[in-house]
Fold each of these.
Amino acid sequence: MFAEMKSRYLILFTILGVIATLIIFMLIGADPVTTEIAVQIAFYIVVPYFFFHYYWSKNPDWSFSEVLTTKGIKPWLPGILGMVLVSIAFSLAMFWLQLAILYPAFPWLAELLLAPIETPGGVGYEYFTLLTLVILAPIVEEFVFRGVFLTRFAAKTSMWGGILISSLLFGVLHLDFVGAFLFGIIASLLYLRTGNLLLPILFHMLNNALAALSIYVPIDEFFAIDWFIVTTAADIEAKAVANIIIMAISTLLTAWIIYRLAKGLKDKAHNHNLAEPLPESDVQ
């Protein structure tokens, strides 16, 4: 399915769609909030809809069940929760490291990164942002990065070439480059092991839901993690040891997760369709 979809067309149409939306809304004098919402609609709804609809209309025998099914996901759910917690812990520790590197030379930039996120568009904007962050982005990004990009780049290079290139592009799209890059690798391996996009989608949704929760709920209410979360410039030094510990543990756990998901995958890739699940005995 995804092997027939041209990744370069998707990239080109996305860029053109975003630019066209920006130009149109600038010409009509729309305010920044309306323009931002329009760009997100173009990025997450309009362009993906027409791109995937074009290929689905050419191949009426295609079915979502080929890449999206609830069958066999239950045993994976506890593991996905654990992966999300490790991913978030690693990203938070990387945020501290980023601040620790920036603050001595560029304190203003570190302060900017620590500034609270403000939502400029009122309740409607907040609801739209939550919908995009928790529902639209995980679904669309998994179809694009783990579906189209992973499959196409793997066909042109190798399985690991597809994983690394698609994850690199995924990291570029996100501010947390290193965390998003490793997140992309784990999501790719989840898809390759199971042939089921629903698992990386759930992985992505849960991760984004917890990230959204941190925006709207004061961090001091999460007393269990307040000991290493950095919210002020003073925390950069005060919580350095805690973050070094979290980084060391989460790095080891991330490496272990990638190893476990990748184990046995390379040898089987030569004889299996890229999105075909490995036998159940290999998944355990």
Note: The two ends are 27 Å apart (CA to CA).
Amino acid sequence: MSTRRRDFLRSSLSAATLVSIGGPTIPGFLARSARAASAEGTGDEGRILVVLQLLGGNDGLNTVVPHALDGYSRNRKRIRLASGQLHRIDDQVGLHPRMGKLAELLERDRLAIVQGVGYPNPDRSHFRSMEIWETARTDSGPEAIETGWIGRVLDAHPPKPGQDPPALHIGAGRSPLATKAKRVEVPSLERVDQFRLQLAGAAPEQRSARTAMSDVARVDRGDDPLLGFLRRSTLSAYESSRRLEEVAGTDGDSSYPNYGLAQRLKQVARLIKAGFGTRIYYTRQDGYDTHANQFDTHAALLNELADSLAAFHDDLAGAGLNDRVAVLVFSEFGRRLAENASGGTDHGAAAPVFVVGPVRHAGLIGEHPSLEPDDLDDGDPRFHTDFRRVYAAMLDHWLGLPSAPIVGEGFEPLPLLPPARG
């Protein structure tokens, strides 16, 4: 093997992954034409799942508010929400006053609210409960967190060479544990308009790598299978750069509010509308660990959540894509029934889960957990719906992928979304 070729292989094998989006490094295989993706979009393979994690433990009792239950008024004085302020769902339950945009989606039959979601023997540690939700495993030990639930989906259904990544994390920092896989790397994007193909830097060896990769991309070296593979990967990386820069160059939808979450969902919508074949997007909203002075802080968070989800839904609806996209919204746990002395709430257990999109049954799914003292789990509302049944619905019904190898046997999918065909 010649020195030039050996140097090229060494540099290009490392440089092939140097596609940077807002700082994090991702593989250089984001490539598929928008025309091809649009052609697929009408079938089950065109369905997209957006997972939104509320970090910190959202107070479900002041989100989906059981205003007519005596236990609510008995245990909450400073942070209690009056029934007349709520967006009514039924005679007992209403949405927080600042969630008007989400209430509008409910009126349009685009929102399902699963009540009392959790898991057996709840753990009130942020880190442990997040591990359980993100891995869909309640056992402990290093092997339990080797992969996340989405990561196992990706390992079971890996992308073919040249395909768009099957999952993307939208936000700063590393991809979450939920997307950790053994064989598939999930890219992390902060903003589409920060995309640039970084195959060369100031160092001479990096400039040499770009020159070599450009050369192999131009010349058909069909006599060498390895160089042929690298040629296809290089072309894919350049095509990825071109396509994402085209997306970044388009005028963004100005109807999104100026919230961090709204801007992240805007990036998701831009990629979906550009025809990327990614089927699972993951993003997060932080700030829900409301131990003190919860009233105003929580209201602002829920206002951001509701307005951002509504803007995202309406953006996709305007593009005729809203029936292809479902959004799953969850937090690692709820908060305790009783408020604390600091005007906040401490770590709890069961909480509601939202699903936005073409839901089968809009409104409340399941009964609200009892707030009677004898029915509480160490001061918390008891769960009655295992979160893995929600995940099973996202996989079996929405994406058309078997859930049992991912979440385990015995978790019947909830009837949340239209089942996939075949």
Note: The chain has one domain: 31-193+257-407.
Amino acid sequence: MRQKIVAGNWKMNKDAESAQSLASEVVNMVKDEVTSEVTVVMAPPFPFLSSTQRQIGDAAQVFLGAQNCYPKDSGAYTGEVSVPMLKSVGVTYVILGHSERREYFGEKDATIADKVDAVLAGGLVPIYCCGESLETREANDHEAFVSGQLDRELFHLDAEAIKKVVIAYEPIWAIGTGKTASPEQAQEMHATLRNHLAKKYGSEVANAISILYGGSVKPDNAAEIFAKPDVDGGLIGGASLKSRDFLEIVKAL
């Protein structure tokens, strides 16, 4: 059975005090209210990783995530953060290839592939993001575009490695816009990704990989999206900044 995951990407939000409060609230709510086997990930900004991990403590279902990494282990790379550094403060998951990293920081296919390799080599779990723009979808090129991202950024991995990757499909046109892909659109793209994985690695491997939906998931639409057979959870942006909203999304899964 595929792992069910809800990951909260806090992006560049919160300060030290409010980050600690949010982490504490989420952890306590999960302990008190979540009885199903859902993996919960919180990915705060780098300065708040250690304090968030302290709040997580021994919470069995809650894990620490990072929003990015650099593919080298150490060296003269001012401003960057390596996988060994992340691992040393308790990080388990690392978000890679997010559309904002691609758009604002110019991350290319080769860079993202290198980061995937570095995270896997360090024993951490990549949450690899892929997705199309509104222009690409309106041109009806979305399936080919996203399949091509996998070809260039993941398909150098062997079957054992790819099974350790979590994929997050994020329609760029539905991130922070209030627009959401319909449950049917989400299922269509998740099935496309799983079928593309199956062509390369076989159906057994493809069916073992968790594919999350990321694009304006909220408490009032989460259950309908998560009910689709190829949707294994969500990568949550804005709603992860409010503990009750985030918890209701977790409970929907």
Note: The beta strands are 4-9, 38-43, 62-66, 91-96, 125-130, 166-169, 211-213, 233-236.
